[in-house]
Amino acid sequence: MIFFAETLGMLIAAFIYLVATKQTQVFKEKQSYQVIPAGIIYAIAALAYIVSVKMNGVNLAFVMSQLCVVISTLGGIIFLHEAKTKKGFIYTGIGLVLIVAGAVLTSVF
Fold first, then answer.
1. Exposed/middle/buried for 53, CB within 10 Å: 0-12, 13-18, 19+?
2. DSSP structure class, residue 80
3. Residue 1: predicted pLDDT
4. CA–CA distance, 86 with 5 (Å, rounded to integer)
5. Where are the transmembrane segments (predicted)?
6. Which end of the chain is less packed: N or C, by CB atoms within 10 Å?
7. Per-domain boundaries in the chain
């Protein structure tokens, strides 16, 4: 599990840096703890990518990991109510279809 060791090393290095530069007030700030869930979600995603590389190979795993653009775009439109013109929605839809088609073609061949 080199991933865990790397993460632990980054955590220790950040702690040493904060203590050495006397920036320990960071440990008392609310914002420092509010970003922990985002870090955990990122760690889960990175671990899933590593497992996917082992199971599927790097070619397929990388292509599939780039489909997050589709999820982000749809999430922005649905949940954040991003405003676009009708023409903008058409171009966005075409782009998303091309991304998914490219991923499918790349993974098949």
1. middle
2. S
3. 62
4. 49
5. 6-21, 33-52, 58-81, 88-108
6. C
7. 66-109
